[in-house]
Amino acid sequence: MPELLNEEEEKKMMMMKLRMSLSAMVVYPIIAGALTLGGCATGGGQPPAAKSAAPEAPVSNTLAVTAINPEDLVSYANTIVVPTAYVKLLVKGNAFVAQKGGYKVGSNANAVKASAKYKVVGIDKKLAQSIAQQAYDDFVAKLRAAGYTVLTYNDIRDRDYVKGAGREKADAAWGLPVENSRNGDETYVVAAPSDDQHFRSGMNGGVFNQFISLGKPRFKDATVIIPQYTIRAPQVWGETDATYSTISAAIKTEPSMRLMNASAQWMGAPKVRMMHGIPGVTSNNPVKIAENTGELVQAADTTPEAANALSKGLSLLSGAGSVKTNSAEYTFTIDLNAYVAGAVKGVADFNAEVAKVAVAEKKP
pTM, whole model, 2 decimals? Predict the structure, then answer.
């Protein structure tokens, strides 16, 4: 059996290993605030772990949709009214990721963290409403080509319930309403083709809130449809990794554009039936619609050096552990032509899928 070390000798041996470990510590910068920390788990550490990413919806290059109650499209002799369309564009966000791992002191003793804040430069009210107008015009044109009579905002604007409908309040900074993602880590501006076409939504009826009375549609001569599109560029997410000897946390970026989701919900003539979801057409998954729509650059390094220095001085032997943090702020400046082309392509692709559903359902 090997000779057992007394307490003093064991402590000297551990200190020697610690010095060797700290001397091997490396920080590898990766674009957008990435951080890789090596040497913190020398002589043991966590079992190998597969790379992990922050929760991210799977992306596809093919747009697939689901249609619910398409029979509503023909409730009024193939007549449809499209009061507006809403396009949501990402304007700022943040990402955070952390990886924990340990040596003898436990799995929570050491950690690396990476974070980034970013804003999109080049989007304003005029551009956002222009994209919404193109989405609206294309939607109307495709449904007309499918054989439907389509009433636009200009056709219904003088109806009393349209003139009296509430409009959404604009954010002072953007001149447009803004909306946060479900997780609160992304902010979008929401644009309609015009201010007059930005109707106030609500718990009762969602986007149809202003066109419902006593639970029934105010429109009595057409099925009402309101398309919506959520577009995200750039892509910013976190990744972590852990092996026997290293742990890492990184923020990754991509200048691509995705159509995160799209829907064309509708209200036809009231009827009694079993509901299996909101009537309309909805995209099934995010889809990449452009590879490169701008340039991401670092605007500021916000890494807390003081906190890192304090963390480095903590003793691994004491169980206090070590935490390394890397953070930065970035700006994503859009390439105007590429950005608009990607957005228009995305909404047009979805509109084409809605038109396919309409064609299949249309009555002679």
Answer: 0.81
